[in-house]
UniProtKB/TrEMBL annotation:
InterPro entries: Tle1-like_cat (IPR018712). This is DUF2235 domain-containing protein. Residues 64-94 are annotated as: Disordered. Pfam families: T6SS_Tle1-like_cat (PF09994). It comes from the Bacteria. Residues 66-86 have a biased composition (Basic and acidic residues). Residues 271-389 form the T6SS Phospholipase effector Tle1-like catalytic domain.
């Protein structure tokens, strides 16, 4: 279950990197030629007698949506009477404005040759975003927060596999189920599976995933038996996903495998040729952040409820190949990664950056990072490696040189990004498979930017809201450093009357995690001791490595809100709610929302009448054409935004963990409260040139047992003897 080292070379120039060796091209061409055979007969001239079916499934991440992020489609607020979204104007996005994920980019590259050719790509929008094909008409807070809608998306994908087979049989004329029928079935599955029913003999049985699908597979099998031509010799699936979409992709593989009988679906040999996922995050149901912040055992609150529980199992045998790109610098409590265990051809690799630096979803210039065009975004590098790895495994992605010009732009890598990448990986040295090395470089950069962040070109290029987020979060980092030093000076479990009282301003500077541990003195854990040292004894980085972090790595903690509106749709929903309540009920931040909305409406009316506008009115009216003017949110507004649940997690708008918390890694092993990651040995292994931190295990054990951290009991010595297979895979991927 080792996570492999980050690739040292940048995929630049992209045309050269994605050009496969002649031998590999020959193998792919041979496979394609031998897979499809066309025979003619007197009775059926020109008909294909054998059509292997290829299905590509692309599960997008939480709050990622192709139509919104690439095409600029906006969704109106739901009308309470009609239960349909209100009409709203959309506009085409310029390439520099697009923020579609790597899943969308791979979907664009998959051939769409249905009917008698046998290629069927299906795109599944991320949870929390509209997906009309399963009845979700607008964005959804429950989808974004709790992954509501995940199971219907998986069921929809399974049903489309059945449809693809039926369409092949009918020459594209007839699916097994219509769009409306699939929509209803995807919703019915959620209601019916797990329900207890009485059979005709008086026995009570539980409807399972397999028994629910039996009827639909039997119908398909009957269609196959009465349609001898074309013959379908094989069904090949390629499955991709990001974030919760990656979790859906993995769950899909398990649920698809459960439907196979002797490796066949409805009598057709079936295989999942490739599983390509970016930074798999489940967080379904009560997540790991709940176990960290409330007296709830990790065994209960691990974010792997319902359909996500299958992620904790090894990948099914039907998965032949795959790649899991893991974000080395993600830290958020709400984004623990779930590692995947497959056969020897499935590998997991660290890529520097945070969650969406790996899976995509940022627009160029967002938060001032990746300034320029699409090629300047850090997520382009894992995208290129995923594309190449998939092609090598036989995924029928269109070769780069044959892609449409617009799609080619979505895969380009900028020369400046490439040089910064290689400076970073050179600094990693031989330790690119170690989380602690990646985080060491990150902490060294944060220490250097603790007082100079606002002087960077990226900060100056960020939007006003992003600047506020980055400023607030950097101030919290400084406050947490003070908290760590204060905790270190206090004996563990100091009597309450001897604990120094924090002033309101001091408490406001700290993350909730650190503030609570100052007020209830708790010894530093091993990770905190190790990380704090980089701020107390700074170790400068080269200019190129500084540029890598300055210009390309986003701050996911700063710009991830537990409280406050995130998307443009969220802001319109908030404005509609505040305006409906009226001016007399608008207090605090809501009053600012109300006032700005009134001012915007007045400016739009004046513009429509042709009346002269002030510069401010002209700006508001222009922005309101295809966007929503909204007040800048600050940590000072937190009290107006948080509800009871959020108060258990944070004292600001962001989650309360801060920068000194190590990311969670699942699966966990152990009993109830005392659980630790299966990756623990690798996660706590220090870089080769660094001696282990001297920490008394008894101090850490007491801390972990109470607060359910990642179970890090001590830092382990590095191993210098990796197995031969690991060495060979590393060489192949370098």
């Amino acid at each position: 279950m080792m996570i492999e080292t980050s690739p040292s070379k940048a995929p630049f120039p992209i045309e050269k990197f994605l050009q496969l060796p002649s031998v590999e091209l020959s193998n792919i061409a041979l496979a394609a030629c031998t897979a499809t055979t066309t025979e003619k007969s007197e009775e059926n001239k020109g008909a294909k007698c054998s059509i292997p079916v290829h299905v590509g499934l692309f599960f997008d991440g939480t709050n990622n949506n192709l139509e919104r992020d690439r095409d600029g489609k906006r969704t109106g607020v739901l009308n309470e009477e009609t239960k349909k979204p209100e009409p709203i104007a959309s506009r085409s996005l310029a390439p520099v404005e697009r923020s579609h994920s790597n899943v969308v980019r791979l979907f664009e590259a998959y051939p769409d040759k249905k009917n008698d050719i046998g290629y069927f790509p299906y795109y599944i929008p991320g949870v929390g975003t509209p997906f009309e094909k399963i009845g979700e008409l607008t964005e959804s807070q429950k989808g974004k927060a709790f992954a509501k809608g995940g199971q219907p998306r998986i069921t929809w994908a399974l049903l489309q596999v059945l449809n693809a087979l039926r369409l092949t049989l009918s020459g594209g004329a007839t699916p097994l189920y219509s769009t409306d029928e699939v929509c209803q079935l995807a919703q019915d599955y959620d209601k019916e599976v797990g329900r207890t029913v009485n059979d005709p003999y008086g026995s009570r049985t539980i409807i399972t995933h397999k028994t629910w699908f039996e009827t639909y597979i039997a119908l398909l099998k009957a269609e196959i038996e009465k349609t001898p031509k074309p013959h379908i010799p094989k069904l090949t699936l390629d499955v991709f996903g990001f974030s919760r979409g990656a979790a859906e992709a993995v769950a899909f593989c398990h649920l698809f495998d459960d439907l196979l009988v002797g490796g066949k679906l409805a009598g057709i040999p079936a295989v999942i040729n490739f599983l390509g996922v970016f930074d798999t995050v489940a967080s379904v149901g009560a997540s790991g952040s709940v176990a960290r912040t409330l007296p709830v055992p990790d065994a209960v609150a691990d974010g792997h409820w319902a359909w996500a529980k299958t992620l904790l199992e090894p990948l099914p045998p039907s998965v032949a190949n795959g790649l899991h790109c893991i974000a080395a610098h993600e830290q958020r409590m709400n984004f623990p990664v779930t590692g995947l265990e497959g056969n020897g051809k499935f590998k997991q690799v660290y890529f520097p950056g945070v969650h969406s630096d790996v899976g995509g979803g940022y627009a160029p210039g967002e938060s001032g990072k990746g300034r320029g065009d699409q090629s300047a975004m850090l997520s382009q590098i894992p995208l290129a490696y995923m594309f190449k790895e998939a092609r090598l495994a036989g995924v029928p992605l269109t070769p780069f040189g044959e892609l449409e010009p617009r799609t080619q732009l979505d895969f380009q890598v900028d020369a400046k990004l490439a040089s910064a990448w290689e400076a970073y990986t050179a600094e990693l040295g031989k330790d690119g498979a170690l989380l602690m090395k990646h985080m060491e470089l990150y902490y060294r950069w944060r220490a250097a930017r603790l007082t100079t962040l606002e002087s960077t070109a990226s900060f100056k290029a960020a939007s006003a809201q992003a600047q506020q987020d980055l400023r607030d979060s950097n101030q919290m980092l400084a406050g947490d450093i003070k908290a760590l030093k204060l905790r270190r000076s206090l004996p563990n479990r100091t009597p309450a009357d001897e604990v120094p009282k924090l002033s309101p301003s001091e408490a406001a500077e700290m993350s909730q995690w650190q503030r609570m541990r100052v007020e209830n003195p708790t010894a530093l854990n091993a990770w905190e001791i190790w990380a704090l040292d980089f701020f107390e004894h700074p170790k400068p980085l080269s200019d190129e490595v500084m540029r890598f972090f300055d210009d390309y790595v986003h701050d996911s903690l700063a710009c991830f809100y537990l409280a406050g509106e995130v998307t443009e749709y969220d802001k319109r929903v908030k404005i509609a709610s505040v305006m409906k309540a009226g001016a007399e009920r608008a207090k605090g931040f809501d009053k600012r929302v109300y006032d700005l909305a009134e001012k915007t409406q007045a400016a739009v009316k004046k513009k429509d009448k042709g009346e002269p506008l002030s510069p401010e009115e002209a700006s508001l009216a222009k922005e309101a054409e295809f966007d929503t003017p909204f007040p800048i949110m600050t940590d000072a507004d937190s009290a107006d935004m948080r509800d009871t649940l959020i108060l258990t997690q944070t004292s600001t708008r962001r989650e309360g963990g801060g920068y000194f918390m190590r990311r969670g890694y699942y699966p966990h092993v152990g009993f109830f409260f005392f659980r630790r990651s299966k990756y623990e040995e690798q996660l706590v292994r220090p870089p080769s040139a660094q001696a282990p931190v001297n920490v008394r295990p008894q101090d850490v054990v007491a801390y972990e047992a109470v607060w359910f951290d990642d179970g890090m009991l001590a830092l382990l010595e590095p191993t210098n003897n990796p197995d031969d297979a690991t060495v060979e895979r590393a060489k192949a991927f370098a």
